[in-house]
């Protein structure tokens, strides 16, 4: 079965059926779905997160999706950081846009990584690889990853759990935007403290 066929099969309904079938494994299967997506970005993260929320409930589904996604992203970043100078990654190191992205992330640190992770359709696998190739500190990367994924996964989980509420209760949308700003601000304050501690 090729990747296109797998992607076609991975509808929310089919994933929910899979989750019901693997209920005996508890949350392991739901966590594994989002973890694997970090390494195979053609898989539909949006559908995985929505299905987890529908299958396990809003908060449990959110946590399992967030945990798997963070673990997968961190593993990929660490692998790239360890083997980044290997011949396999040499073409990425030399690519002008990748090098430009690396310099941007190194200069700005927490901010751009957090913002990119907040949005569900950004190529998170590419962010993980670029962060791994760059010299950005792992503390900054992990902080931005965990907080950014909170925003993104929670938004998708909420849509999967109760899509109509976004239309009928716009106050929740305003709260979500406020939450994004609050997480960004908290992340920046922690980053400043980390930098001061380093000095």
Task: Offer a quick outline of the entry.
The chain is mostly helical. It is 80% helix and 0% strand. It has twelve helices and no strands.
How would you describe this protein?
There is one protein chain. This protein has 199 residues and is mainly α. The protein has one domain. Helix content is 80%, strand content 0%. The protein has twelve helices and no strands. The model has no long low-confidence stretch (mean pLDDT 77).
Residue fraction in strands = under 5%
Number of helices: 12
Q: How far is the first residue's CA from the last residue's CA?
A: 53 Å
Please estimate the helix content: over 70%
Quaternary state of this entry equals: single chain
Low-confidence region ranges:
none
Rg estimate, integer Å: 18 Å
The profile of the biggest β sheet is: none
Q: How are helices and strands ordered from N to C?
A: HHHHHHHHHHHH
Number of strands: 0
What is the arithmetic mean of pLDDT?
77
Number of domains: 1
User: What's the overall geometry?
Assistant: globular
Structural class: mainly alpha
């Amino acid at each position: 079965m090729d990747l296109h066929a797998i992607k076609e099969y991975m509808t929310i309904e089919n994933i929910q059926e899979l989750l019901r079938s693997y209920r005996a494994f508890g949350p392991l299967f739901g966590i594994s779905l989002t973890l694997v997506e970090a390494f195979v970005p053609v898989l539909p993260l949006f559908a995985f997160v929505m299905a987890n929320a529908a299958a396990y409930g809003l908060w449990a589904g959110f946590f399992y999706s967030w945990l798997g996604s963070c673990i997968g992203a961190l593993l990929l970043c660490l692998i790239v950081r360890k083997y980044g100078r290997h011949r396999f990654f040499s073409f990425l190191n030399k690519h002008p846009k990748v090098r430009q992205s690396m310099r941007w992330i190194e200069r700005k640190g927490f901010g751009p990584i957090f913002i990119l992770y907040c949005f569900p359709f950004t190529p998170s696998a590419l962010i993980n690889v670029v962060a791994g190739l760059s010299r950005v500190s792992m503390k900054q990367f992990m902080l931005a990853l965990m907080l950014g994924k909170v925003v993104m996964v929670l938004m998708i989980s909420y849509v999967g759990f109760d899509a109509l509420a976004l239309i009928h209760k716009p106050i929740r949308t305003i709260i979500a935007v406020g939450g994004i700003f609050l997480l960004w601000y908290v992340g920046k304050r922690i980053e400043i403290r980390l930098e001061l501690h380093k000095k």
